[in-house]
Specification:
alpha/beta, Rossmann fold, globular, 4-stranded antiparallel beta sheet, about 40% helix, 11 helices, 6-stranded mixed beta sheet, about 260 residues, 2 domains
């Protein structure tokens, strides 16, 4: 059995009187892919931000390779950032519009690996995400949405993280481009053994790219297990409601709304 590269243990986070994250625990094995799903307001993005370090948990702990994450010095914060990287939903907003693709990658490499020649690594990253050196001089506005997301993925991979957190990373893309990016991520996972934490509301994405799934509602985990098993035979009413809410032939939105009110 592979070791757990990431563990969240008893995470809590409240904003005023709202429990955004309420005793959330899960584990991600090395080279694994875990999906956290739920509607808006379920707490999945706050959980992701705690894992990355953008939010601080009120209680609980995040461990990478069995070690609690340390932020007491700049060197340790940089080391923490190298362990877990995040790819955001909107690649245009997450990239500096004034900086070329090559400049984006060089800036990241200089921050984490100063004093070394980064030419070869930049070329490797561009090839790894399917862009090639022709895109090196382009600015974000000159790229398509799919190309910009490839740049964001390359930037995250530049520091060779143990875990990649993907927060709705394909939600802003056309369906055909989504498929290309998901195939790219599958290839990268096979090559590098990086662990993926997918944050999404799209059960189709979860079904295709994750091994395990965590279902969140109102900040708490209501169901968890192997993706295929949970989606084939969900035990919790909320998981069943999420599945029934996906439009399909014979879909009745009024019945779904009534089931939601009952739940």
């Amino acid at each position: 059995m592979p070791e757990n590269v990431l563990e969240a243990v008893g995470l809590h986070r409240a904003f005023g009187g709202v429990r955004a994250v309420d005793d959330v625990s899960f584990a991600l094995p090395e080279g694994g892919s875990l999906g956290i799903v739920g509607e808006s307001g379920s707490g999945k993005t706050t959980t992701a931000r705690i894992v990355v370090g953008l939010e601080r948990a009120d209680a609980g702990e995040v461990r990478v390779r069995g070690r609690a994450r340390d932020t007491r010095s700049r060197a340790r914060r940089l080391a923490r950032a190298r362990e877990v990287q995040m790819v955001f939903q909107d690649p245009y907003l997450s990239l500096d519009p004034r900086t070329s693709v090559e400049g984006v990658l060089r800036e990241t490499l200089r921050l984490h690996f100063p004093g070394t020649d980064h030419d070869r690594r930049v070329r490797e990253l561009l090839d790894q995400v399917g862009l090639g050196t022709r895109a090196a001089d382009a600015r974000p506005r000159q790229l398509s949405g799919g190309q910009r997301q490839r740049v964001a993925i390359a930037r995250a991979l530049a520091v060779e993280p143990a875990v990649l957190v993907l927060d709705e990373a394909v939600a802003a893309l056309d369906v055909s481009v989504q498929a290309q990016i998901l195939n790219l991520l599958a290839d990268i996972r096979e090559e590098t053994r990086v662990g993926y934490l997918f944050i999404t509301h799209d059960l189709g994405v979860v079904r295709c790219v994750t091994d395990e799934i965590v279902v969140m509602r109102r900040g708490a985990v209501v169901e968890a297990g192997p993706t295929a098993e949970v989606l084939a035979a969900p035990r919790h009413p909320y998981t069943r409601l999420l599945l029934e809410s996906v439009p399909r032939p014979g879909w009745d939105p009024r019945a779904i709304a009534a089931a939601r009110r009952a739940l």
